[in-house]
Specification:
The chain has helices spanning 4-30, 34-40, 56-75. It is mainly α. The chain has one domain.
């Protein structure tokens, strides 16, 4: 059975990613350098989990893919 709390969390995550992605695109097009700055900060990004699911590199890889997607969108 699907948990309503998990569904709401997923929907919030999707909405937050969309808004953040569009904000990054907007700023980067008007003030280049934001994506480079974010990319340079990835070594500080980590997974806050305290169990076996903790995977800092997986979190960083998601961020890298988001940056790549933003760069591609801006270039088109």
């Amino acid at each position: 059975m699907t948990n309503d709390i998990a569904i709401q969390a997923r929907r919030r995550e999707i909405a937050a990613e969309h808004v953040l992605f569009k904000l990054i695109e907007y700023v980067e097009m008007r003030q280049p350098g934001l994506l480079d700055h974010i990319e340079g900060s990835l070594s500080h990004l980590g997974d806050p989990a305290r169990d076996d699911t903790k995977d800092d590199e997986a979190v960083r890889e998601i961020a890298r893919r988001m940056i790549t997607g933003a760069r591609r969108e801006i270039a088109s």
